[in-house]
Design a protein that fits this description.
The chain has a domain at 31-103. The chain has helices at 2-9, 20-30, 39-43, 75-85, 88-94, 106-116; strands at 34-36, 52-55, 68-71. By secondary structure, it is mainly α. It is elongated. A three-stranded parallel beta sheet has the order 1-2-3, with helices on one face.
Length: 130
């Protein structure tokens, strides 16, 4: 694996096969940029106000938050994108935006909806076998 090999050659590169859920989200909280083509960049990174450089077409067709900067697989384009997403002008675009995929409180909203629903007034279809 190329990344694992690079991590043995450069002390600034650390290879971790699997961070686990807790460490992964902690890394997102403290990261400066997310670079790659993960759905996590498209869906979750906005909740951490993390700029994402989405490389390639793997996430094509998914709705994007304003923190996502799409680039083709090209070293020069990627390097330019790294500079662009670090600019305050880019950060202003998404910093105060709500994640289009939710705010992390869906369970509470579902429970609240269920509690507020009067199920006795819902229509139901009787089985022909009753």
């Amino acid at each position: 694996m190329v990344l694992q090999q690079l991590s043995t050659q450069y002390e600034d590169i650390h290879f971790v096969k699997n961070l686990g859920k807790f460490r992964y989200y902690s890394m997102m909280k403290y990261a400066d940029i997310m670079l790659g083509n993960s759905s996590s960049g498209i869906i979750e990174a906005q909740s951490y106000h993390l700029p994402v450089i989405n490389v390639g077409l793997r996430q094509e067709g998914r709705l994007r938050n304003k923190n996502v900067y799409d680039v083709n697989v090209d070293v020069d384009l990627i390097l330019n994108a790294i500079e662009e997403v670090q600019q305050n002008s880019f950060k202003k675009i998404y910093m105060n935006e709500t994640n289009i995929y939710g705010d992390g409180h869906s369970c509470e909203k579902i429970v609240s909806f269920i509690k507020a629903t009067d199920f006795s007034k819902l229509l139901y279809k009787k089985s022909i076998f009753e």
